[in-house]
Design a protein that fits this description.
about 700 residues, 5 helices, 15-stranded parallel β-sheet, mainly beta
């Protein structure tokens, strides 16, 4: 019979009930039909049956295709020829027609597949042969079929194709996993930087940084892995990586040889080696030198540079320069093998922090500096709990303009002074703390008298008020030849309630004053401020430590530090306060030196403005909430270039069964809240925190 229909395909939509689907075209065998459900090829007899072949037929499923399922039936005639005509036998017309029918049906099936293929127009020559399989595989990375300038098909590596497309459309790659770029001295900045080979790695750090800044990180981490060698081009990093979330621990890092940093040498002839401008970077395993100009590390304008194990060779300017509300946080060993203008030069409300780390001044004969440590303009320099080794041959510590240098709990293995040779220079309301102290004791009791001398814990000798003790000590003058360096005084407070405002004063004879209550039961000693409890609103160069007592403030703050005043606290129980538990303004600094508790609320827990600094500098701190408290404004509020450093890896908020109600934090006016990647939910509260005015939560 003739083949009059050209149809080779029919499609249906399942309804979850129907099992029989018509096939309207000629077919020769039940196996000549291919049946698909939602693109999956089904098996004859296992999934369906077919009625006897002929001019039409029916495909019957054993189970009805689901509702809206795509059911497609196509003809797939077997490409065989089974007719054998015998010489001199009668010619069988039916047999011949059957053979012609099979050939025609097979030809229609092939044509149906060809209509779905990529074809050149009939008037063009045949397409060229594709490259062989090895070329198309590109070492397993895969290729892309493209057309060349003549319109002929060819293959291109996937990486090359992707790079071209990005250049054409200026698209931004969004990461779906952490990304590592590689830098080698034998690499090329024409490479993609994605493999640790000469043919794949970048040659310069700057090219790797630029590649990272072309990304949308999507919350993932970017690492620049630097191979051993010497690199003579520095790196400048401006701004933050796109969508490199602060909650992602160390989202952008440059890593060299973390065991032997000297193996990865960044040696810059006449420029800065590492420069950050409103940026974040974690740097580990590199050695930094400059030969004729430039800084080793320049961290400025709200930047944060965190370091692991690093090394400094000779640096023409400062090894560490930290400016304009920035932070340099040393979380690993620093090997100082060369000389510089300064080891650390910190200025403009910035912070250098090294806590429980080793700083080794390793140059034989001692390292030489113009100024060893230089703090100016509300700067803070922290060597809290560090181990210092080696020697400083030249360069002294200079600190002025309401700045703060802390050598608290330093293990000093140096053969020279930890402050460097020469006179320790402290000016303009600045403070340097040290653990080598000569201590004098004075006493305060509720049954004492402010006309007493305070030298014994008796009613006949003790002061009656804390202010009486402060005023008495203020009038003590040291002899002209007396060296008061490291001399401190303790004001020991007996159990009871002291309703007063303790106004702090600069002591001529004492570098630091400790106000100490009941160490075992701090709540037994209550300083009930009639306005503020502890008031340092005028410039005070003496460092005050408030310890082991309960503070309340009827119309102010529990601890208030302004105008360069430096106050630390530990073991304090913060009760109710109208304004804040901790209030810092105009270059003041409040240092949390140990664990404490919170039993009352107020408008704010921590509040810093106008360059004020709140620093949780101790190795391990627990802030324990002992009642349900509410902060009507926020737990932490920063404004006007203020800085708060609360290391989430070392400070624990312990709420137990109690709650903290209110906004977690409120940042404005270019302020910085450094949580060491703790995230916004780390600060206790019931309402999410807010940032404004280019403030930073890190």
């Amino acid at each position: 019979m003739s083949v009059s229909s050209t149809g080779t395909r029919v499609a249906y939509a399942g309804d979850g009930v129907t099992v029989a689907f018509a096939w309207p075209y000629r077919f020769l065998a039940t196996s000549d039909l291919a049946v698909y459900v939602d693109g999956t090829l089904k098996t004859l007899t296992t999934h369906y049956t077919v009625s006897a072949p002929g001019s039409s037929g029916t495909v019957t499923f054993l189970s009805a295709p689901a509702l809206a399922a795509s059911v497609v039936i196509t003809r797939a005639t077997a490409k065989t020829q089974g007719i054998n005509f015998i010489a001199n036998d009668p010619f069988g017309a039916g047999i011949a027609n059957g053979g012609f029918d099979r050939a025609m049906l097979a030809s229609q099936d092939i044509n149906a597949k060809a209509e779905r293929a990529v074809r050149a127009p009939d008037y063009e020559p045949a397409l060229p042969v594709l490259p062989d399989a090895e070329t198309r595989a590109d070492d397993g990375a895969g290729t892309v079929l493209v057309c060349d300038e003549d319109g002929n098909p060819t293959v291109m590596t996937f990486d090359d194709f992707t790079s071209i497309i990005r250049d054409i459309v200026n698209a931004t790659e969004r990461l779906t996993e952490d990304r590592t770029y590689y830098v080698r001295t034998d690499g090329s900045d024409l490479n993609l930087g994605l493999t640790n080979t000469a043919a794949g790695a970048f040659k310069t750090l700057q090219k790797a940084v630029d590649a990272a800044y072309d990304l949308d990180c999507g919350g993932y981490k970017v690492t620049i892995q630097v191979a051993s060698g010497t690199y003579t081009a520095g790196v400048k990093i401006i701004g933050r990586l796109r969508n490199a979330y602060d909650t992602n621990r160390r989202p952008f890092q440059i890593i060299g040889d973390i065991v032997t940093p000297a193996n990865v040498a960044i040696v810059i002839p006449s420029a800065n080696a590492i420069e950050l401008f409103d940026a974040y970077l974690y740097l580990d395993g590199v050695s930094i030198s400059t030969t004729s100009g430039g800084y080793g590390t320049l961290v400025r304008f709200h930047s944060t540079l965190e370091t692991g194990n690093i090394r400094f060779g000779n640096v023409a300017s400062e090894m560490i320069a930290c400016q304009f509300n920035s932070i340099f946080n040393a979380s690993g060993t620093i090997d100082v093998a060369g000389d510089a203008d300064s080891f650390a030069h910190v200025t403009k409300n910035s912070l250098f922090s090294a806590t429980n780390q080793t700083i080794n001044f390793s140059k034989p004969g001692g390292n030489s500096f113009g100024t060893y440590v230089y703090g100016i303009n509300n700067a803070s320099v922290e060597f809290d709990g560090c181990t210092l080794t080696g020697a400083i041959a030249a360069g002294r510590t200079t600190i002025h303009d309401r700045s703060f240098v802390n050598f608290y709990s330093v293990t000093d293995n140096m053969t020279t002074s930890r402050f460097g040779p020469g006179t320790l220079n402290i000016e303009d309301g600045s403070v340097v703390t040290d653990t080598l102290q000569q201590t004098l004791n004075y006493y305060v009791r509720t049954d004492g008298d402010d006309d007493n001398d305070g030298l014994a814990n008796t009613a006949a000798r003790a002061f009656k008020t804390i202010q009486g003790a402060v005023d008495y000590l203020y009038h003590i003058k040291r002899d002209h030849n007396q060296n008061s360096a490291g001399v401190s005084v303790k004001i020991n407070i007996a159990d009871g309630t002291y309703s007063e405002v303790v106004k702090l004063r600069t002591m001529a004879a004492f570098e630091s004053v400790r106000i100490i209550g009941n160490v075992s039961t701090p709540a037994n000693v209550v300083i009930a401020g009639t306005t503020d409890a502890i008031n340092g609103t005028k410039p005070v160069s003496t460092t005050y430590s408030i310890e082991s007592c309960k503070l309340t403030a009827a119309a102010g703050s529990c601890i208030r530090a302004e105008a360069g005043t430096q106050i630390s606290f530990t073991g304090v129980n913060f009760g109710s306060a109208t304004v804040a538990h901790i209030q810092v303004n105009a270059g003041g600094t409040v240092l949390c030196a140990g664990s404490y508790s919170i039993s009352g609320g107020g408008a704010l827990h921590g509040y810093a403005t106008n360059g004020g600094i709140i620093d949780y500098g101790a190795a391990t701190i627990t802030a324990t909430v002992t009642a349900n408290v509410t902060f009507s404004n926020a737990t932490i509020k920063l404004a006007g270039l203020a800085v708060a450093h609360i290391d989430s890896t070392k400070v624990t908020w312990s709420l137990g069964v109690y709650t903290v109600t209110g906004k977690r934090y409120a940042l404005s006016g270019l302020s910085v809240l450094d949580l060491n990647s703790g995230g916004g939910s780390y600060i206790p509260g019931s309402i999410a925190g807010t940032t404004a005015d280019s403030s930073i939560l890190t």
